[in-house]
């Protein structure tokens, strides 16, 4: 079902953990749908992402895309990090099954949410970054059978 | 492939070597069509009749009430669609439950789009159909009650005797999907007032591609496959003779060793549940703890997602299954886990392990150690667990 790269990043996820006093933290996804990603960024005064960590509740693809996304933004500038799209994450993983594409979107959104948090904390605006819409929602809906 | 521990016997089972042995002559030696006149074809016909008798005896029915199908899903489709067709002048209302297999649920939904009304009964927190609700749901135009014998995910055995009694009292036909229960618990269609019963060969160490529908004599039911005169003209198509022979053998073996096998499975099941609940915190068992299939275990591990758990178990050579959304291809977790009232995020962390005849205590010990390690790893990675721990710290 998964490519070797996905399995590798699932089995040995890179950058799992938390960053204390992170420059920016972003949480996206929804426990209801079974995917939550949280990304911690440590951004230095020059706007370089010095460190990045993640925590994910989700399937194999969710874990692997989180891991790959953190690898892709580590050491990059904010601008470069903004260019890490879900497509880039998917390509770096040698593709995902069609039903799992939404996981790669979450990874992109999680990075954006963390950058948004960083921008808010520092009272700055990041060009090209929009307020992330996807966030943890705990509301319960009636099931439609 | 290295070590493998197969704990997904509710998905399918190994075909028993004795079953394969019984089937083999009917591929290359006695390959005659059972519907022919010559002596050679009679060999096949006799074998089909013998298997039909064995199966009928196993549920307290007569041979001419057992109709072979290609499997459990076909039997469910047939029972429900053909009853609807045959009794539509009497009424167009069907009662089922929210935790049925999709072969029943999707068939009922299809009927709803074709002029029928369906009531989907709620179940309690253990997955037991609420009998009072059933009684209230029966209307003058109710033609069928279809409720599973035992649930495939959480193993709960339904109060089939009571349901059969209620159906009989109200003059409504009762169909039960016994795909998981047949061979695991004793079934007698007369004592339980069952009018139709679906079963499948590969769930009880028989071959895949064969099942049967029991239809009580006297029930008006339409043909499901039109064509030749096989299965008393109700299900046309050349008999799957090796499949039928294999199914017959599997049933013979399952009935023969039911007591000893299920006793052993029950003990191992309780051992597995006991160890996991004791050694892994924030874990629950889904389904009824007493009225439960002997080989079924279903856990929810909080803060963990089921597919991740399955893949990591697979890496350790353990085959299990989950009701998480990611294993179903949709965004919602299992309808059964939602119906017993679990919130989505907990339902996503489910793990079903179904034991088999060959399962050993060593297998269970290895599996418990693996689950412990994996659940620990996944929780360390889980933002839900992080939030939970922070809340607890406050």
Explain this structure:
The complex is a heterodimer of chains A (145) and B (394). Chain A has a three-stranded antiparallel sheet with strand order 1-2-3. Chain A has helices at residues 4-11, 60-73, 78-82, 86-92, 101-122, and strands at 24-30, 35-43, 49-57. Chain A is an alpha+beta fold and 145 residues long. Chain A is globular. The two termini of chain A are 29 Å apart. The longest helix of chain A is centred in the last third of the chain and has 22 residues, at 101-122. By secondary structure, chain B is an alpha/beta fold. Chain B is built from 14 helices and twelve strands. Chain B has helices at residues 17-23, 25-28, 39-58, 72-87, 102-112, 131-137, 160-169, 241-256, 258-279, 306-315, 335-339, 344-347, 361-380, 383-393, and strands at 5-6, 66-69, 93-97, 117-121, 142-146, 173-177, 196-200, 211-215, 283-285, 296-301, 318-319, 350-354. In chain B, the strands form three sheets. Chain B has a seven-stranded mixed sheet, with helices on both faces. In chain B, helix 10 (306-315) crosses helix 13 (361-380). The longest helix of chain B has 22 residues, at 258-279. Chain B starts with a strand and ends with a helix. The model of chain B has no long low-confidence stretch (mean pLDDT 96). The chains are: A alpha+beta (145), B alpha/beta (394). Chain A binds chain B through residues 7, 10-11, 13, 16, 18, 27, 31-38, 55-63, 99-100, 140, 143, 145, and chain B through 98, 120, 303-308, 311-312, 315, 324-326, 329, 331-333, 335, 338, 343-345, 348, 380-386.
